[in-house]
Amino acid sequence: MRLPAGLKAVAVAAALMALASCGEEKETPAPPPLTLRDLGAEVVARECSLCHRAAADGSLSRLSGIRKTPEGWEMTLARMESTRGVKLSPQDHRAAVKFLADTQGLAPSETAPYRYELERRPNVVESGRNADLTSMCARCHAFARVALQRRDAEEWRRLFHTHLGLWPTLEYQVLARDRDWWEEAQGWVATALGSHFPYDTSDWREWSAAPAVDFQGRWRFVGYMPGEGFAEGVMTVTRNAVDEYLVAAEEQTADGAAINVNYAAIIYSKYEWRGSGKRDNRDFYEAAALQADGVTMTGRSYWRDAPEMGSNFVVVRADRGLQRPLAVTKEGLKRGASTEITILGVGMKGEVSLGDGIAVRVTSRSEDKIVVMAEVAADAPLGRRDVRVGDAVMAQAVAVYDKIDRIEVTPGQATARLGSDKIAPVSAQFEAVAYASGGDGIAGTDDDFRIGVVAAAWDVAPYDEEASRMKDHLYAGKITPHGRFLPSEAGGNPERLYGASNAGDLKVIATVADGDVTLTGEAHLIVTKPLPPTQRGGA
Ligand code: HEC
Ligand code: HEC
């Protein structure tokens, strides 16, 4: 199989160092320090080959025929350590993940559809897969875990041996009894995955050959935290070692405070940015991807002990003369009204235009931030439209509307988890999104358009008759004025009928006022038992 490139590099470097030491000079310059990746190559060659047989070409059995994300490698290494007796120092562990993700990683195009898993986005409902594959491979974990690995059919088959070996009861568990799981896994599933997600792809070959990008410099960032709003700032990235950086961020938080955050970031596979550090003394983690343009990153940052709470961000180079609006703080502009909006961006120069029927009065501006009063004529055309600053366009960034026709609560289906004194609860954040029915006045047709997130009053109610009989809405938890549901404590509750736990089946209701009209929207929320501590938090 394939010889990991880094292994060759280490062998060559060692040979060169041996040659250098034969030289005549008295003052031999100190050899350059090993990079994390080179150290990783050594760790893998030394520690993993104890069990994974090395072939003549240097490849290691099992190990060399699989490509994974950094998180995928992390999971495998954790299993090697917890169940196979492998012992690595924290530094060797980090180095092995780095080396493996760099040399046997996934290309940007291969991770693009599944980034929600890497970014730990809560309440994602996966779709677009056939029911059999979902039932076989996406009922214990997300299908994204599968789709973020690449291997040929033979290696997929071996993974199913591992599954059955680790969880012999797998075939008798929920939703598995309708089929012969093992027979199907070894048969059509392995074949299908081997052809959808094979080891060798032109995308990865081309990406491996592409030059690496230097992340040093100044970047502008804008983040959006559902329920809270926009945070923004600039960050200065300096190199600490090859592919390892220090980040100094100056941030205006969503509630207007100015804070400085210093943290570390590492780049895997030339584009996978992973940052971590402390913010307000609390550990956070961030996962982002450098985009094909080489100057933009998009991703999500979240609390390590509560990954469901986080902020979606975009980061753009601020030292390359780029001119770009990145976000508008309010999407919906009502006909006949004046609305103040803030355009956040980088290098923004030139006239601000919101299109036909909107007079724009700039009240303050810098290249990063423009505050405007948008006066919308009573007959301004309805629908989504572009925001322009000079020659830069932010497509379909705002909407002109005359009335709200319906409210959708997002996510429409969510899970929250009770907490205990040992395990933190898992909260759920909701937002009310307004829609207009468009020219035909009929909801659910092609000409409907999104007006945007609107302020709402929040409440919970029993989801069905059984929940009503059990009064779930009184016990399962509370929803804040910002739409975040905070679950109660786990364990039996003597106050409840049957001494039941505080689990519940709820409707989350948003009430929105639009002029004299009041609209409501609903979502379904299941409040269930705590996660095992091993699945709560962490990155
Ligand atoms: C003590 C023996 C032992 C050592 C040392 C060891 N492994 Fe493993 N490894 C196993 C066994 C057994 C399996 C098959 C079962 C499994 O996957 O857990 C395995 C499987 C694997 C697989 C395939 C998993 C999959 O996704 O299907 C990978 C990759 C792997 N090991 C990586 C490593 C790396 C990297 C190291 C060195 C840091 C390492 N192993 C060290 C015993 C070992
Ligand atoms: C009975 C529950 C269950 C089912 C069904 C299941 N998995 Fe898993 N899978 C797990 C668990 C648990 C892990 C975590 C293993 C660990 O702790 O390292 C896992 C891990 C994985 C991994 C990551 C392994 C690594 O080390 O990188 C992949 C890939 C995977 N499963 C694919 C599949 C596929 C494909 C199927 C369908 C054929 C499937 N799984 C069905 C429970 C399941």
Please describe the structure with a list of short key phrases separated by commas or semicolons.
single chain, 539 residues, alpha+beta, Lipocalin, eight-stranded antiparallel barrel, 28 strands, 23% helix, 37% strand, globular
Mind explaining what this structure looks like?
The structure is a single chain. With about 550 residues, the protein is of the alpha+beta class. The protein folds into five domains: about 5-105, no CATH class; about 110-205, no CATH class; about 215-315, Quinohemoprotein amine dehydrogenase alpha subunit, domain 2 (Lipocalin); about 325-400, Sandwich (Immunoglobulin-like), CATH 2.60.40.10; about 405-535, Sandwich (Immunoglobulin-like). It contains 13 helices and 28 strands. An eight-stranded antiparallel β-barrel has the order 3-4-5-6-7-8-9-10. Helix 2 crosses helix 4 and helix 9 packs antiparallel against helix 10. The radius of gyration is 27 Å and the shape is globular. One heme C binds near residues 80 and 85. One heme C binds near residues 72, 75, 141, 145 and 189.
